Structures are given as structure tokens and as C-alpha cells.
Fold this sequence. Notes:
Elements: H1 3-6, H2 9-20, E1 30-35, H3 43-53, E2 57-61, E3 72-73, H4 80-94, E4 97-100, H5 104-113, E5 118-122, E6 134-139, E7 166-170, E8 187-199, E9 202-204, E10 210-215, H6 220-229, E11 233-239, H7 248-260, E12 264-267, H8 269-275, E13 281-290, H9 293-300
Parallel strand pairs: 1-5, 1-6, 2-4, 2-5, 6-7, 7-8, 10-11, 10-12, 12-13
Antiparallel strand pairs: 3-4, 8-9, 8-13
Helix pairs in contact: 3-4, 4-8
Amino acid sequence: xxxxxxxxxxxxxxxxxxxxxxxxxxxxxxxxxxxxxxxxxxxxxxxxxxxxxxxxxxxxxxxxxxxxxxxxxxxxxxxxxxxxxxxxxxxxxxxxxxxxxxxxxxxxxxxxxxxxxxxxxxxxxxxxxxxxxxxxxxxxxxxxxxxxxxxxxxxxxxxxxxxxxxxxxxxxxxxxxxxxxxxxxxxxxxxxxxxxxxxxxxxxxxxxxxxxxxxxxxxxxxxxxxxxxxxxxxxxxxxxxxxxxxxxxxxxxxxxxxxxxxxxxxxxxxxxxxxxxxxxxxxxxxxxxxxxxxxxxxxxxxx
Length: 303
């Protein structure tokens, strides 16, 4: 533990919870995609890539920001109000069964009834009641020297990485690969490849594009910087809290501001699916995993 964490009651409480837990493992093969920090590190893009490649998979998510609490499935409620914005986006992009529930074990039973052969948990690394067969931990380089909340962005002490089976450093759109310490785990690199702005059914090149950006994500300036780094001219922006439900009145204001500035209103893909509107664009990205990740995953799957 870092020095601030040694004097942080919350850090010790989380450490005690983890050490005293007696986690159970589902009786069908499961993959957990988690992180250590509060906010976004790229869990959902990785879950989407896993679900696309693994047949007979089902996704279990908490459903952050949804309107209705309880257990809901994409078969009965294919919308962001019941699945959450991320759960709904996963469903739309993969076509797999998505189950939103606070109780992951109840969700497991539903997935089994649906015929799932592989479970993919979105953000269950701190769900100490459960341990998946394969635990993938996504880190940002800054996590190596970060502290636990409220002195830093981490949910638990960094040393908890030892409960993972593999580590994935998310470098976002950076082309550089810094040197990382040997943590004794299989380690891979994850990056985002910008494909353009999808708007009104077309994919537009960012270079020279005038954009009014808006989003409700954990790391809004990474989104805005990605637009700028891609060559777009960001003439204005609005930022909302993560998982924020942007109301019609607010959205109309964004559309009017965009028109006044002769710009295209652009949000993240997660915001786009939550809004359900075709008159806004979104930053279209693909996820690239390096270092032989897919070969590693194939060696672990029971299929």
C-alpha cells in the first residue's frame, strides 16, 4: 500500500472485505472484465470484443444509470432504461443476451437457462462474492502510482491486481508503449483506433470537421482530445456526469448551438445509444488488443 493508503480507513476496509470474502465460482466458464479505478478504463469496449468473438456467450452487468432496478434481460427489455446505457450498447453491438442485475448469481441462472456456454461479467472485480474462471484487469498507466479514494481514483489498493489472471494496459489512442514493471501476470496492450464520425448513416473523416462535442462519461476530456487529435475542430462542448440522461430540452439546446456554429453535434457511442437519436453523430472507434491477447484467450477457453 502507498503511504496515503496506509492512513486511509476506506482502503483498509476494502482490503478487509476482499481478504475475508469467500467467493464462489460459477459452474460454467466465466470471464470477468474489471478495473481498479473509479470511472472508465475501457471495460465495455473489451466486453463487446469478447462477446463478438465468443459464441454462446452472455453478458452480465450491473446496469449503471438505468431507470429501473431489479433483474432485467435484453430478451424482455431491450432498452437502456432496463439494461443501462452500457448494457444496451453491448446488446445492440453484439446481439448477445445481456442480463442486468445487482445479484450476479441470479443473473447466472438466467444465462444458463438461455443456453449460455460462457459468461462475461462487466465490472465484477469488486464483487467479492464471485470469482470468475478468468479475471481480466484493465489498468491505466497512472494506476501504478495512484491512491485509494478519497486520496486518489482507485477503488481498492493497487496490490489487489494479484487477484487477476491477466493485465491489460489501456493506452487509448497513444501510439507509444511505455515500459511497465513486471507484475508477474500475462500482460497485454489495448488501444483505440479512430475510424471517424458516424453521422446520418455515413462515416465521416475527422480532419477539418467542425464539431460541437457533448458527452456523459467518466473521462470526458479523453473524448474531446481524441476528436482534436484526429484533426477535428471542436468549436464548443457540453459535459455531463457519467451515465447522465440528457433530456430533450438540453439536447435541443445542443442541436441549436451546433447549427449556429455550423458544426455537427457529436457524442460518444455510449451516449448515442442512450439518446436513441439519428440526428447526432458519434465517435466511431475500434478496439485493438496487442501482445498475443487473442491467442492467450483461446488457450483459456473450454470450447
